[in-house]
Amino acid sequence: MSKATIQRRPLVKKLLGGADDNLLVIAGLGSSNWDITNAGDRPLNMPLWGAMGATVSMGLGLALAQPAKRVLVITGDGDMLMGMGSLATVAAQQPENLAIVVLDNGKFGETGNQATHTSPRNNGPTDSGAGTDLALIAKGCGIADSAIVRSDSEIAQLVKDARSKPGPVFRVVKVMVEKLEFVMPPQDGAHLKDRFRQALLGHS
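Now predict its structure.
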C-alpha cells in the first residue's frame, strides 16, 4: 500500500474555508483540535479537550437539534475507533445535515504515535496486511455515503461533499504522519461551551 500524501492542515483549511454561521464544527481531541484552530479559531468551532470517542455522538446530537445548520465533525482514527458504535446511531437517525471527516494517519498522535488498528498489519495474527477499514464499517452500519479519500485530486470533491452534500456523509481521509506544532484553542471547556452556545443561540 502506498504511503499517504495528503497533509492534514492544508486539507482542514480547505474544509473550513469561507465558513459562515451556518457551519457548526466539532473536532475530536488532540490533533484535530489543533487543525481547526490553525485554520482560524471561531466561536462556532467546538474543539473537544476530552471525551475521546464522543465526537461523532456530539455532532449527531447537534445535527438533530439544529437541522437548518450544517454540522461538520472532524476527528482522528483513534477517536473514531473508540466511538464506532456512534456510527450505527447516525445510520439509524440519517441526519441530512451531518458530515463526518476522519483524518486517518494510523497513529495515536497524543500518546506517542503508537499504531492504531487502521495501520497495515504486517506481523499480526492473520498477517492480512490491511488495517481496519472505517469507511467499510460505516457503510455496514448503514451510512451509505461512505468512502476513503487517498489523493490530493479528490480533495475538491471532498470539500463539496463535506460542506453541502445531503448526508449523512462519512469520509476517511488518509493523511500523512507529520510532526506539527500545537496551535491551541482556548483551554477552558466551560468557556468553549458558552461561546459556542451564545454564538449559536444568542445570549438569552
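The chain has a mean pLDDT of 89.
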